[in-house]
Every structure is written in C-alpha cells, then in structure tokens.
Design a protein that fits this description.
This is C-type lectin domain-containing protein. The chain has about 170 residues and is α+β, with helices and mostly antiparallel strands. The chain has 3 helices and 11 strands; from the N terminus they run αββββαβαββββββ.
C-alpha cells in the first residue's frame, strides 16, 4: 500500500512539474478542457488545438504551427470544424492545411502527415473556384464551409498536435 502511494506520488509530482515539448513548456493536467495539452492549447477529441490570433500568409501560418510542435489543421469532420470555430472571434476565417499548389484542381488536405479525405466546400459559392489563382483554403466562419483564396492573403490559423497520453 505504501509503495502504491509512493508511485502515485511520483507520477503526480511529474504531472505537476510538467515536461518539455520542443521550445514550449507543457504542464499536464488531468481532465478539463486543457486535458494533457500544453498550457496554451485546448484538448478536443484526443488532440490539442491552438488558434494563432495574428494574421499570416498560408506558408507563414504553416511554419508557425510547426515551430510550436504541431501542424496546421485540416478538419476531419463537421464536429471538429464546429469546435474549431469556438476558438476564434465570431466571423473570423482561418487557414487550414488544404491546397492545390502542386496540381491545379487536385486538393490535398493533411493533418500533419496524414491525408484527410473530408471536404466541406461552400457549395453556394461554387468553391473551390480558383478565381485569381486561389490555391489555399480557409474555413469561412459564418457557415463553417471552406473557400479557396490566394495563399498570400492574411488570415488567422489553427494548429493541431496529438494530446500526450498518460500511461499508468
């Protein structure tokens, strides 16, 4: 019994003291909206999410997510999109990791290194329409649907990373 308490105490101490992940200090907590995510990230569906509030180009946003130990998000469902929309001010658009830079009309969406099949193009606007050489995608927050835009436009972004798994 004493040994179990000692081990539990060591695990608890480790969680309280935190751990390092990349350049960012991460402090794990059990439960709650943050879950086991770093302090500025929000847990949902087994992953950690962070909104980049500063407006960047698509490539700058992608680099910023990577620098923070994550990847630019590519939503996998409407439920995930609905969650992401709660992390930004109303009527904000944000970059997602979807583009047709390699081949016009062939859209690639990736969540880290995994290809994402889900698509949610704005049908009323006949998206993606490639007007003015639009090769990158944003979520349009009024509807949660996607539109294609010029990759050098400035938008906020959403980053994702796996939630740390706590093993006992």
């Amino acid at each position: 019994m004493v040994r179990k308490r000692f081990i539990f105490g060591l695990i608890s101490l480790h969680l309280i003291m935190g751990c390092t992940a990349g350049d960012e200090m991460c402090k794990a907590s059990i439960g709650g909206r943050r879950g086991a995510c770093p302090s500025t990230w929000i847990k949902w569906g087994g992953k950690c999410y962070k909104a980049i509030m500063v407006k960047l180009t698509w490539s700058e946003a992608k680099k910023e997510c990577t620098k923070m130990g994550g990847a630019m998000v590519a939503p996998r469902s409407q439920e995930e999109t609905d969650f992401l929309m709660t992390l930004l001010p109303l009527q904000s658009q944000f970059w997602i990791n979807c583009n047709d830079l390699k081949e016009e009309g062939t859209w690639k969406c990736q969540d880290g290194t995994d290809e994402v099949e889900y698509r949610n193009w704005w049908t009323l606007g006949e998206e993606p329409n490639n007007r003015r050489d639009e090769d990158c995608a944003v979520v349009y927050l009024i509807s949660g649907e996607w539109i294609d835009v010029d990759c050098i436009s400035l938008y906020r972004a959403m980053c994702v990373r796996p939630a740390p798994q706590l093993h006992f």
